[in-house]
Amino acid sequence: MISFELTPEQIGLQKRLHRLAREKLQPYSLQLEGKGPGPVDEGFLKIIAGQNLNSFIIPEEFGGRPLDRVTLSLVTEEVSYGCAGLASIYAATVHAVSALLIGGSPEQKKAYLPLLLDPGGAVAGCAITEEKGGSDTTSFTTTARLEGDHYIINGSKGPIINAGCAAFYIVFASSDTGRGRAGINAFVVPGNAKGMTFSPYHHKPGLRNTPTANIFFHELAVPQSNLIGLPGSGYLLLMQTLDLGRAFFGSICVGLARAAIELATDFAKKRIILNRPIIKNQGISFLLAELTTELDAARLLVWRACRLMDLNLDYTRESSMAKLFASEVAFRAASEGVRILGQKGITGPSLMDKCQRDAQALRIIEGTSQIQKMIIASQI
Ligand SMILES: Cc1cc2nc3c(=O)[nH]c(=O)nc-3n(C[C@H](O)[C@H](O)[C@H](O)COP(=O)(O)OP(=O)(O)OC[C@H]3O[C@@H](n4cnc5c(N)ncnc54)[C@H](O)[C@@H]3O)c2cc1C
Predict the structure, then answer these.
(1) CATH code at 166?
(2) 156 CB under 6 A from ligand 1?
(3) Closest atom of ligand 1 relative to the 210 alpha carbon
(4) What is the pTM of this model?
(5) Mutation test residue for ligand 1: of 93, 157, 365, the one with most atoms within 8 Å of CB
(6) Domain of 284?
(7) CATH number, residue 48
(8) pLDDT digits (tens, 9 = 90+) for 123-173
(9) Lowest CB count within 10 Å: 100, 163, 211, 240, which one?
């Protein structure tokens, strides 16, 4: 049975978060953009803790109140409506937690998941990308060699969301570079581990409110018990967590697109040129009609991927479709939005300009649009 109706609980949660996103997050995040690169903002950490965002992804036995994936996509959409930067900080935590939930031992879950319920707010990170190209996840130059009962990690990763701020990182490294994907292992690394240093935070045009930096590993020793899953199972875990993450980045794009389309529509209704609101011109109203339709289609793709996750069915193709379509819709909505707003779209601190810059970054993160097409093509 297919139903698009939300439950009263889902609607209640959506409304609560929407109010926060519209009234507090949007103005706050715009103000924050001017601050320059730095660690995760304290105000964001308070929101993560105050809204119990991390408890939504942690099983009850470790102190959380988990939501199903469809409901989590609603949460992500609302947070992103307020700020795609905060939503991306959250998605990185979701990503790291997913890796632990899929492949982690009971001891690893017990040791690390509760750290995210810190009353001051907490985040986690997932370190995959290397200088040689984020699109190639089949081998890594970061290595993890087994010495006695410890793995010794060397190399570098970046850009990594929440670098330098995370309670823990999931790090993918090669323990046998000659074996390609079969040599990949995943590790949970505590945020304060010795042997880890960070580059300065990156200056970037988009997702400025999402801190990213490179992580450098110098003879970082983690006990063998920090290996996630069996030796050589890292590549499979990587694919599984990326599959999950893509749908959530899709919902971030839906939230951003919705904010941009609403902003453009409100403006077009109020802006009077040649004695009538500009929305009276079909050149504007048809564009907004198309974007509104695409927005709904993007959301439905996200919901379908999340529903398949909830049902424990295959969702690789659907998750990539959701990310591909939603990120392109977000980019089109924000770019056209800037055009509709005219000079007001780019002068002064402009929410639409922020949306446009954030949307560009969202087309790259968690696999570019070309990579999503390669995944979809491999499944048709
Ligand atoms: C803001 C931001 C935050 C990020 N956060 C994280 C993080 O927390 N953790 C993490 O591990 N990574 C993170 N990344 C990295 C991200 O996942 C990569 O940037 C992404 O996977 C693309 O890799 P790349 O930038 O190295 O591009 P490359 O892999 O160098 O690709 C360059 C271009 O070539 C294209 N291309 C590559 N192969 C093909 C092909 N076969 N056919 C057609 N085109 C191709 C790509 O689509 C792209 O347009 C982040 C990136 C950004 C922008």
Answers:
(1) 2.40.110.10
(2) no
(3) 1
(4) 0.97
(5) 365
(6) 235-378
(7) 1.10.540.10
(8) 999 999 999 888 988 889 999 999 999 999 999 999 999 999 999 999 999
(9) 240
